[in-house]
Design brief:
heterodimer; A: about 500 residues; mainly alpha; B: about 230 residues; alpha/beta; Rossmann fold; 4-stranded antiparallel β-sheet
């Protein structure tokens, strides 16, 4: 059997060959180049900042590093351990090493847009922390932190994925998660959130970055060495945890697939039936269920903890909606699987089937946004002004519509086959998902930022006026997607794509 | 009941179906046989209205599939060659959906009978992603015959199915024919094609290379004749 490195290279080559769409290939290369440019820009932005602003940013550095650490655990956890270069059910006939899966997941960490955003934020922080001194040593420490936390996060995620293979393990993980949640809420409610952040070990990391910039080599070297040791330990632990999780005989998922479900009553209309089937297809998929819950609760928890001001809440829907759109929206027809062939032979208006997908997508995205906003508003200081409330409402609706519009367009133009049987199954290949997340997050974040800025004017009407042209444009784009879907040739291509296998 | 004329299907430069005529009268059953890649499943998809043809026309129960797709589909019961099931829906939910989209009333008794006949009663409320290949095939046949269609299209209905499932499938084909439905069965299993159908049409490379009463393809002589046609 070949080594993990060789196996991973072979899988990457296969993945690249399987990316038939030249647009996706170009997009991936351009995205990588853009990311590198952005990191350079972020690092170099320190010089252009006002010293007071730079000082405030430096104060936020430990929290920023801590945020990255949390994300490093959560991101692979939502992927059931780690993202897959090639779906494991397509590789069952090959003697793949578990470490290949582990390293593959690590390599795909940058395919997560939130991870990338946090990385750029850390790059900017490193620039601020080392401003006026030597950038390289500080950057080495920050880089070691990024690598160590990404590896440790993935190792933890595999450990949890392994524990969740059995019912007892799932209960233990749920209990630990609930305890952690209660603990966090208690600390925040007790007003000790700031003190907890002050005690964060990331302060030591930040001090190490600063020491690197100022030429305090002993402190810098010690911090960097500890981070590198953690990286090594993470690699050793991660490969073992991944191997254990993949080989552990478990009962996860099988119960749901073999246990009889409660029979629901028949719906009165074709749309009602299609909606019921589509909703069930979402919530019965382990990956979608877990992703939805994480998306609904984690950003809400963070906003509760940070007691975000009302104007900041306006930005939130854009980010949350983009994440929710990734659950299944970017490839909505994959919910039908090979049943798409049978469905296409039934006498129904294809517009009704499209409407059902659109409604399920919209309600999933909007519900996630509302949940996060409600959680976030619980500790926002003071009472919101009418302008802030209007902006939050407009942002929730507009960002949802923007994301749904982009997602439906992608579903119609770039369908993929996706089984969604297992915990690590994704709705689309990693590259396509990365590009889709960028295409949804960029416009949604812009809309959020625009509406947030509009609150400065103090008028409740302004957010609504600003949202109107965006909504109208989305309406036109949705209509275009519906017209495309009305073409029998295109519909048959969608059916062939999602039912292939 | 089914009339296809000059049927052509092209995927880019590849011609999967190369322009042939096919017809099945009411109360008759025809087997579409041939090797893998002969164009059987592509033909079935076109006849079911799932795949628009690149050329030619298809008429089902007097309705042109391209002009009146909904009317044509209402007359068709289709069992696709692969899966054909919504992975996280149960058999009962499939039947509920089919009944609603087809405007069926009082369908529950028929659904229960079919589930019992195909030994799927115990699995009626389990999601189909946990089904074996044979169970999935049997459910696909149930969904195709559920509304007693005027044209029954069964694509590889015997593939991986146990003897009892094969018997149940042969029984519904016989019942459909007796009811006056036209039946088209696509399969690479010649012996079962002979048992299920009266006529056989042999496909090779997307073209019809032979047509004969199915019985003439049975036995050693029939197999020899069939081999000569497909090689």
């Amino acid at each position: 059997m070949t080594g993990a490195g060789q196996q991973l290279l072979a899988l990457l080559a296969l993945r690249w060959k399987m990316t038939r769409d030249s647009g996706v290939r170009v997009g991936l290369l351009a995205g990588t180049a853009f990311l590198l440019w952005l990191i350079g820009l972020a690092v170099g932005s320190a010089g252009s900042l006002d010293p007071v602003v730079r000082g405030t940013a430096v104060e936020l550095a430990p929290a920023s590093f801590l945020g990255f650490g949390l994300l490093a655990v959560v991101a692979p956890l939502t992927a059931g351990g780690g993202a897959e270069v090639v779906p494991s059910n397509q590789l069952v006939a090959y003697p793949l090493r578990p470490s290949t899966a582990f390293f593959g997941g690590l390599l795909l960490a940058p395919a997560n847009l939130v991870w990338v955003v946090q990385l750029v934020a850390l790059a900017a922080m490193t620039g601020y922390l080392t401003y006026g001194g030597a950038l390289l040593p500080g950057a080495v420490t920050a880089g070691a932190y990024v690598l160590a936390l990404t590896v440790l996060g993935q190792a933890t995620a595999w450990l949890i994925a392994g524990l969740r293979q059995t019912r007892r393990g799932r209960l233990a993980v749920a209990a630990a998660g609930a305890t952690l949640l209660v603990l966090c809420v208690a600390v925040v409610r007790a007003g000790e959130g700031g003190a907890a952040l002050d005690a964060s070990p990331t302060r030591t990391v930040v001090a190490g970055v600063v020491a690197g910039g100022e030429g305090e080599l002993t402190r810098w070297a010690l911090t960097t060495a500890v981070l590198l040791a953690l990286l090594g330990a993470g690699l050793a632990l991660g490969t073992r945890a991944c191997s254990w999780a993949l080989r552990r005989p478990g009962d996860a998922g099988t119960g749901r697939r073999t246990a009889p479900l409660r029979r629901r009553s028949a719906r009165r209309t074709p749309l009602g039936e299609l909606l019921a089937v589509d909703r069930a297809s979402v919530w019965r998929a382990p990956a979608l269920r877990r992703g939805g819950l994480v998306l609904a609760f984690l950003p809400g928890l963070v906003t509760v903890g940070s007691a975000a001001p009302w104007t900041s809440l306006v930005i939130l829907p854009g980010l949350v909606a983009a994440g929710a759109g990734l659950l299944f929206g970017v490839n909505a027809f994959c919910l039908d699987g090979s049943g798409a062939l049978w469905l296409a032979s039934l006498p129904h208006d294809p517009r009704v089937a499209l409407k059902a997908k659109l409604l399920v997508m919209t309600e999933t995205v909007f519900a996630t946004v509302v949940l996060v906003l409600v959680a976030g508003s619980m500790r926002s200081p003071g009472q919101p002004t009418a302008a802030e409330l209007a902006a939050i409402g407009a942002s929730a609706v507009t960002c949802t519509v923007v994301v749904v519009t982009v997602a439906l367009g992608l579903s119609v133009r770039r369908p993929h086959r996706a089984d969604l049987h297992g915990p690590r199954d994704a709705v689309a290949p990693p590259g396509a998902l990365a590009l889709a997340s960028l295409r949804m997050a960029a416009p949604a974040a812009c809309v959020g930022a625009l509406l947030s800025a509009s609150t400065v004017a103090g008028s409740w009407l302004l957010p609504l006026v600003l949202a109107t042209p965006v909504l109208l444009t989305c309406g036109l784009l949705l209509n275009r997607s519906a017209r495309r879907h009305a073409d029998p040739q295109l519909r048959s291509r969608i059916v062939q794509a999602v039912s292939a296998g | 009941m089914l009339v296809a004329e000059g049927l052509v299907v092209e995927f880019g430069a590849v011609r999967a179906v190369g322009g042939f005529d096919l017809s099945v009268a009411a109360g008759r059953s025809v087997a579409l046989v041939g090797r893998n890649g002969a164009g059987k499943s592509t033909t079935m998809r076109v006849l079911a209205g799932v795949l628009p043809p690149s050329g030619g026309s298809v008429s089902v129960a007097g309705h042109d599939v391209a002009q009146h797709p909904a009317r044509a589909r209402a007359a068709v019961g289709y069992c696709p060659d692969v899966g054909g099931l919504i992975p996280r829906a149960t058999p009962w939910e499939h039947l509920q959906l089919a009944a609603r989209l087809r405007g069926m009333t009082a369908w529950q008794a028929r659904a229960r009978t079919l589930l019992i006949d195909f030994d799927l009663e115990a699995a009626a409320d389990r999601v189909t992603s946990g089904f074996s290949h044979g169970m999935s095939r049997r459910l696909s046949v149930v969904l195709a015959v559920f509304h007693e269609p005027a044209l029954l299209l069964l694509d590889e209905p015997f593939d991986g199915v146990d003897p009892l499932g094969v018997d149940a499938t042969l029984a519904v084909v016989r019942e459909a024919r007796e009811r006056g439905s036209a039946v088209l069965v696509s399969t690479h299993l010649l012996e079962l094609a002979v048992l299920a159908c009266e006529q056989a049409v042999v496909l090779k490379g997307g073209r019809v290379v032979g047509a004969a009463p199915a019985a003439e393809l049975s036995g050693a002589d029939g197999r020899t004749r069939y081999r000569a046609l497909i090689t």
